[in-house]
Amino acid sequence: MSGLSVRYGDSIAVSDVSLTFPGGAVSAVVGPNGAGKSSLLLAAYGSVASTGRVTLDGEDVSGLGAARRSGRGLALVPQGRQIFPTMTVRENIQVMADTLGLPGREVETALDRFPVLRERARALAGVLSGGEQQMLAVSRALMGSPKALLLDEMSTGLAPLIVAELMDTARRLADEGTAVVVVEPSIGAVRDRIDRGYVLLRGRASEPVGGGRALEAAYQHAMGVTVAEKPGEAVRHAVSQRNGR
Ligand SMILES: Nc1ncnc2c1ncn2[C@@H]1O[C@H](COP(=O)(O)OP(=O)(O)OP(=O)(O)O)[C@@H](O)[C@H]1O
Fold first, then answer.
1. Where is the ABC transporter domain (predicted)?
2. How many Cβ atoms sit within 10 Å of the Cβ of residue 49?
3. What does the pLDDT read at residue 232?
């Protein structure tokens, strides 16, 4: 995306942001609540209005709506997952297959992506655990083999083992050439599993940073906690800031 901006009335949520998410890599965008992360992803996906340019695998998709971007190979798992709670796991997947015009075998492939989905194929999606719902949302987003997968706050509220399983899937997809983008308010859960990323603060993005640890340091620096190598000092600094000293 280049020169991407999102406005809501008079307020600017994303300001002239240019980011690249290469195929074959797991990239991250980290930033605190309200930094503009969801707005950025929704703009990339075409479901909120934006200015600037979005290019997917060399094709300018800026003029296309979300459905057509999805047809070109862009997939988004939105914050909150947006599964259909009163439909079964299989029906949630079937709906996506119907929307994309995919054959029935793709439904079976999606159910097999995570063992728990096959086991719970006839359960209502609304009774699944948070982790199972996230797996359903990811599996559904992967139908049609997207070129780029955007995951908005995937790890929120999930146990570390579940996040690890989801990140294993992200890694496998990247190894197959997909551009995977994880967007998180806190880097801890994904730090050791990402290749590169950006810090987003008040709608503005950093330069690209290579590796999870370097991104964590850049994020801490940007947030005013300066000494990533000296956790004791960083904690004292953070506590004194919180106490207003
Ligand atoms: N539909 C909307 N109308 C007006 N303002 C909005 C809308 N959506 C988001 N905003 C504002 O835009 C800014 C960025 O919000 P956004 O949700 O993109 O941030 P975020 O980094 O994803 O935050 P969080 O981690 O809390 O989800 C915030 O100030 C928010 O209040």
1. 1-227
2. 10
3. 60
3-class secondary structure per residue, 143-204: CCCCCEEEEECCCCCCCHHHHHHHHHHHHHHHHCCCEEEEEECCCCCCHHHCCEEEEEECCE
Nearest CA to ligand 1 atom 5: 8
Handedness of CA 169, 170, 174, 178 (dihedral sign): positive
pLDDT at residue 107 is higher than 80: yes
Q: How far is the CA of 220 from the centre of ligand 1 (A)?
A: 21
Alpha carbon dihedral 179, 183, 187, 192, in 10-degree steps, equals -20
> With a 6 A CB cut-off, is 185 part of the ligand 1 pocket?
yes
Other Cβ atoms closer than 10 A to 168: 11
C-beta contacts of 18-23 below 8 A and 24+ residues apart: 18/205, 19/198, 19/205, 19/208, 20/208, 21/148, 21/179, 21/180, 21/181, 22/179, 23/57, 23/147, 23/148, 23/174, 23/177, 23/178, 23/179
**Across all residues in the chain, what is the average pLDDT?**
91
Give 3's DSSP letter: E
- Structure-block tokens of residue 171: 């890694």
Q: What does the pLDDT look like over 67-81, one tens digit per residue? A: 899 989 999 999 887
For ligand 1, the distance from its centroid to the CA atom of residue 154, given in whole angstroms, is 17
Domains and CATH numbers, the chain: 2-207 (3.40.50.300)
Cβ of 168 less than 6 Å from ligand 1? no
ipTM: 0.95
